[in-house]
Amino acid sequence: xxxxxxxxxxxxxxxxxxxxxxxxxxxxxxxxxxxxxxxxxxxxxxxxxxxxxxxxxxxxxxxxxxxxxxxxxxxxxxxxxxxxxxxxxxxxxxxxxxxxxxxxxxxxxxxxxxxxxxxxxxxxxxxxxxxxxxxxxxxxxxxxxxxxxxxxxxxxxxxxxxxxxxxxxxxxxxxxxxxxxxxxxxxxxxxxxxxxxxxxxxxxxxxxx
Length: 209
Ligand code: AMP
Hints:
alpha/beta; Rossmann fold; 5-stranded parallel sheet; 3-stranded antiparallel sheet; globular
């Protein structure tokens, strides 16, 4: 299955992506994770991307398209993949259509109210060591999994959150119509328990391919 996960920052794309890849045999591709790793490793890509990411801006299309196309071309994507955080612009979606030999099966759009998204992003904490994500209210002290320090991601600071939501509305939301017109858009209400949202996701995926 070839799946795209669409949704505002904080809609729960990463969380649902983890559940989907463990239930279905697909490879998880998160352009955000690839870029964050590049920043951490101090590569040239990382240095280019970091300035955009900390401000909540999108990394330029030509950079991200190259990374995604290369990743999708690797052998572990032959049996399917889940794209999480890509495409984020119409130009990226068009490039993806061109790059794929086999078309996408479904685009899952995670729907959540903007106030809820702001609340979620504001209380998100990430482990500097292993990258696990937590809700601030649920943990005290260091990462329960690896003991690493829990921090607020630079792009989860209030100004960056505001900017990311604006960027989402302006540049990514048009993809909802893009994929609706292509006939492959499915919307999932992404509110309530993680497990309940995942049940809705599975119901949608049952009808696909
Ligand atoms: P994410 O973890 O998916 O929210 O991505 C974190 C940040 O990485 C975003 O705010 C962007 O700066 C950058 N990024 C990730 N994916 C893309 C993409 N498809 N296009 C442009 N920038 C991206």
